[in-house]
User: Fold these one by one.
Assistant:
Number 1:
Amino acid sequence: MGGFAPAKAECEWFVVTQKISMPMFVNGTNSLFATGTNPVSIATADLNGDGHLDLLTTNYISDNVSVLFGNGHGGFTPQTPVPVTNGPREVKVGDLDGDGDIDFLATNYSGNNVTIARNNGNGTFATTSVAVGNVPRGLAVGDLNGDGRLDFVSANYIANTVSVMLNSPNGTFSNATGSPIAVGTRPVAVAVADFNGDHRLDIAVTNNSNNTVSILLNNPNGTFTNGGTPATGAGPRGIAAGDLDGDGDTDLVVDNFSANSLSILLNNGAGVFTASAGGPLTTGNNPYAVTLGRPRRRWRYRYRDQQLR
């Protein structure tokens, strides 16, 4: 607990993307690559199996997702965009059907659904969609019921709910018991991690109008219990989970759009979060999203019950 002092063995830094451009890298030669209209969210993965990272962007106005194949040297070639429904916002990647290829999901803000895009193995995609709550924005992917298949959670901005959607053996998604689940007012972003050490993925969602985070703890029967609503700064939007103080518990960092700050919420190990004595941390204007990582080293992200390298 106490003040925020990242341990060297754990997550060491976070990056805030802002509406006001704050360049962190020097542009390389021919480093601008075409996407659709009004790109909002981005994800990276090897989509065509060549060992190089590729890019996906959700394009809010053109209602599609751009696919750009990487060459391994910082160059990207646009492919045929993947059509989705109205107003795509958040994109996440993962192997949804267990075939070894990376698929993606995208929330559709005006379509009230999530696009499920299954990879044909070569970086082209076959799409379906599944209905969620009204005006979905944030999205997180993880195995929420322990069956070895990736499920997802959407934050439904106008409905003031999250939809917990479970992946079935036939590849369809359906609401978990009790889903959609009521949270605070105007939920924006969502993260999943094991917050209380029971080896089940829990949920955290930012509530933009309440200046809180809703914590939903995963029960053995597949339902979720309200684990509290720790306070943030004004206008929380992005959220990321990781061990920020090196005590083995998964903490949260939240960017506060209206307060121009980051809230550091430290976990006591039971899924109860307290604001760090060293926070909030000042950012530039209107921070919009946050991620955790490690500079100049192989990326590592640690949960209590799993480690991804």
Note: DSSP finds no helices and 27 strands in the chain.
Number 2:
Amino acid sequence: MKDFKIQAPFQPRGDQPQAIAKLAEGVKQGFDFQTLLGVTGSGKTFTMAKVIEAVQKPTLVISPNKTLAAQLYEEFRSFFPNNEVCYFVSYYDYYQPEAYIPQSDTYIEKDSKINEEIDRLRHEAVQSILSRRDVIVVASVSCIYNLGSPQTYLKERFIIKKGEQMSVNDLFGRLLDLQYERNDYELWRGRFRKRVNFVDVWLAGQEKILRIEVVNNTIASLAEGEAPFGKFTRIDSADLWPAKFWMSDNSTIERSLAAIKQEMEQRCAELKKNGKMLEAERLLRRTEYDMSLIRETGWCHGIENYSRHLDFRAPDSAPYTLLDYFPKDYLTFIDESHITVPQIRGMQEGDKARKQPLIEYGFRLPSAIDNRPVKFSEFLDKVNQVVFASATPGSYEHKVSKQVAEQIVRPTFLLDPDIEIRPTEFQIPDFLKEIEKRKALNQRVLALTITKRLAEALSEHLKKEHIKANFLHSEIKTLARPKILADLRRGDFDVLVGINLLREGLDLPEVSLIAIFDADKEGFLRDDTSLVQIMGRASRHPEGKIIMYADNVTGSMRHAMEETNRRRAIQEVYNLKNGVSPQKIYTEIKNSLSARQKIEENDISLVPDEFLREYLKQLKSRLEMARRNLQFEKASQIKIKIDEVKNKIPSP
């Protein structure tokens, strides 16, 4: 079993050493709650990593959004290259939840687009937690949503060994039980195919293909290769995990279906008694159809709505979540806790409000209400020890924490930025002048607006003024966001315009100026906590500066300026006392998750000759699918790849 071991080219400095020692000692003493109050750029992630190394516990790091989760994931991967660092966020690129609007008699069926790469990473995270202890999982608040029973997931795990007695049909049956799909034409993650004397399985949660050779009802050989076209290496055994989180245990499925049927009959009788004949018939048909699918295949669309019966949980009991997959002694960091804690508090009530009409009008059984995020009280019961981390911790964190470790002095000894207030009249021409100054020095600029429309409009206006600009807001796809930030750092463009996503945790040391438009519009985006967080984005640069465009000085603006100036004074005193000067930050621009593209999007020369014909077959299948879906641009790109592969295939 590996220990957590940090590999980093630097050592703790500034306030980091005392914060690390204080928090690690608190964990060892069994403190339930602690807080790391660290200013922006003080190295909170490195402090968290050093605490993990000191206490040697499996760790969950919860981030308030996917952008910050992706950044934390990259940072922890660099600190712990020899340990398992995983990524767990919502796997939907698009998600329309099931809903019913009684006023217009409108039923909205669940519609979603799953990002297969994120789905793989979710499976990888769960499998790592269940199989080793040197695991760090960086997650969004998706980790508090219903995930399915860890006992069932672990029970269904299938360890296959060389020399084991098993026929091909038995192997197929076991793979189908694990929710793998057979597809002899296009192998993909969560699928398997049959060849003359072997079976290929693309493992769920991994970029690996397992090749199983069966001879005379015996596993003659096992081999493993990188998907999709890596060379195979002989192995003696392999783990086969479920391809889906929602699994029905075959040994107890009839008990579960009996409970579902009993609830259905009781609910239908209740609806009929109240004169709701249509609702009763609707519920009967929908539920019976789902039950037949579960009985035959072990799965159905929306199976999570029956999770209370499948898991044999009591009514209103806490659902299983990612937290239940961890061992009991795990450690939790809640990053940017001033935002993440309120998110965790509010998730369950919103879900309940959506489900009530579905239950009332016969679209779902009443037990569907228990397919939900955990309540905050349940969350507290599931976590073991918690460290809150924020530059602006909320009142709750201060109230429950046994101790607060402050990191005001940065390891780079950089100071908090200078702040200037300017009138809104002629603010755009003034901003353009400031951009030109930063461009001349090869520095970057952030601009914060109050709405998405203004962010896009300002970005377009800057482009018309021959300034390279881009925008970032919540409608940008999950894995595209880190790439946009990396492009800003590289200088592919000079100005990034955003709203709320530019506040917490973004590591942008090239940014020297932040312009805050509508700074005097009191509200969620311009309260004192938000403004302090925004100002922190410029503190990673020695020439950091904040310009607030406003015609009035609000209470939030005043409090934010006072707190920033207080911190700056502490930093100046420390630097003078210790004879140190601010140092510019140089951090590597790493490839984001979105940059790790599939092999077909890279150099085809990387595909071994023996797989070219197989690769060509896959490309033709995808070309046909693109044409059917009227995705003509994608089809033309695939056609170009097909021609390249054809030219590379040697003549017979």
Note: Residues 337-360 form the longest helix (24 residues).
